[in-house]
């Protein structure tokens, strides 16, 4: 590499010879004198960077060294532009360092190496300027101007690199976010066909167990989707926010919905291949809250309501079975229908005695006996058929909460079919 300061000492000596007697060299004198030797200086600095900054190491005559030398040369010229006081063309240095910052966002993931390289460039430059001409040292004023200008300019270049780096990270995150949203949509709808272990790990590394958290429709505006998307698969789907998360991070995800005041349902943990099912369960749980089957609460734990989610998995089938198997109940008056269905369901679930059922319902045992007599009149020998008992138990468990919540659709359908 040779004597790094020799070229500068020689040049400053020439400028000194041409400086009128009695007038010390000015900052402008230094800047104009340095122009012809910028290329050699840039080569020296590039060599030092490749030697001292491991991230930029490479062949001394390779492309990387040429890129570094070009950047140093253009930045140095631009620095001299700020010193000599003359108008100069736009060299595109800011844009170049922003582009370098964007490249670092993709390659290294941080700016540590570039900051180190710029600090080294500043140190080498200042050492050369400071030691250039021992016979005629820089005045304190000139030295101060050069130091302020140099280190201020280095700070400016760092800011440009940081600006480019931030833009690069945003672009990467945006691209990654779009890829993650597309993957989330395919997983939720069951349209993902490839093996999950083939998914780009930068997009998603499938955990062993996942949960699906789903917001109420039209209640997602206050959810911090951007923050959730940093660690989980997040997509707006069917007017909902849906999150596919590692089951180990369930509390962190549900806390975000609760903090936003948005009702959500969370599935129990499943393997990633069962995401479409978990999504259906969570949506069904929210629907059952709206219909009054599941009590209203900020967070719906699907695990706590698996029976109702299962029983309501086929609404059309429940409706048809209701019309076929509960026809005697549907024909009763509203008051009779309510008390008989409650009594029958308690008996089917407990098989307790009349006094025990009465205690459960808060009525007299004789009242239960009367009701049971009426139930036997309605269903007769079917109450001794094991298959009928199983089906009517599930049917009443699914239907009675609907009726109690005010859903009259079963009775309206019964009247329509009876009058047809």
Automatic annotation (TrEMBL):
InterPro entries: CdaR-like_regulators, PucR-like_N, PucR_C-HTH_dom, PucR_C-HTH_sf. Residues 30-188 form the PucR-like N-terminal domain. Gene3D superfamilies: PucR C-terminal helix-turn-helix domain. Coiled coil: none annotated. Residues 341-398 form the PucR C-terminal helix-turn-helix domain. This is PucR family transcriptional regulator. It comes from Aeromicrobium endophyticum.
């Amino acid at each position: 590499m040779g004597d790094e300061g020799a070229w500068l000492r020689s040049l400053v000596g020439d400028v000194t010879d041409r400086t009128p007697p009695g007038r010390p060299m000015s900052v402008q004198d230094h800047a104009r004198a340095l122009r012809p030797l910028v290329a050699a200086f840039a080569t020296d600095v590039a060599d030092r960077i490749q030697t001292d900054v491991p991230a930029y190491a490479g062949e001394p005559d390779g492309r990387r060294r040429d890129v570094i030398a070009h950047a140093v040369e253009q930045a140095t010229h631009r620095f001299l532009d700020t010193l000599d006081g003359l108008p100069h063309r736009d060299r595109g240095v800011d844009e170049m360092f922003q582009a370098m910052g964007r490249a670092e966002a993709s390659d290294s993931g941080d700016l540590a190496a570039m900051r180190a390289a710029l600090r080294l460039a500043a140190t080498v430059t200042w050492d050369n300027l400071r030691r250039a001409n021992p016979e005629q040292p820089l005045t304190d004023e000139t030295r101060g101007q050069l130091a302020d200008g140099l280190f201020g300019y280095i700070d400016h270049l760092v800011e440009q690199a940081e600006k480019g780096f931030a833009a690069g990270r945003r672009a990467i995150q945006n691209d990654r976010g779009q890829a993650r949203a597309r993957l989330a949509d395919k997983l939720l709808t069951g349209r993902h066909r490839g093996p999950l272990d083939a998914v780009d790990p930068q997009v998603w590394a499938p955990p062993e167990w996942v949960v699906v958290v789903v917001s109420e429709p039209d209640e997602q505006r206050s959810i911090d989707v951007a923050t959730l998307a940093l660690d989980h698969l997040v997509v707006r789907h069917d007017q909902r926010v849906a999150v596919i998360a590692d089951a180990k991070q369930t509390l962190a995800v549900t806390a975000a919905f609760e903090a936003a005041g948005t009702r959500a349902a969370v599935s129990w943990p499943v393997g990633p291949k069962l995401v479409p099912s978990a999504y259906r369960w969570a949506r069904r749980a929210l629907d059952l809250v709206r219909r009054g089957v599941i009590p209203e609460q900020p967070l719906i734990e699907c695990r706590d309501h698996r029976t109702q989610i299962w029983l309501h998995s086929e609404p059309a089938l429940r409706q048809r079975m209701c019309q076929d198997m509960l026809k005697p109940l549907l024909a009763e008056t509203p008051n009779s229908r309510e008390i008989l269905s409650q009594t029958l369901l308690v008996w089917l679930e407990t098989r307790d005695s009349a006094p025990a059922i009465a205690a459960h319902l808060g009525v007299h045992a004789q009242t239960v006996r009367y009701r049971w007599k009426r139930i036997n009149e309605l269903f007769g020998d079917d109450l001794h058929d094991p298959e009928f008992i199983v089906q009517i138990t599930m049917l009443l468990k699914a239907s009675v909460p609907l009726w109690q919540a005010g859903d009259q659709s079963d009775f309206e359908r019964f009247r329509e079919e009876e009058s047809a």
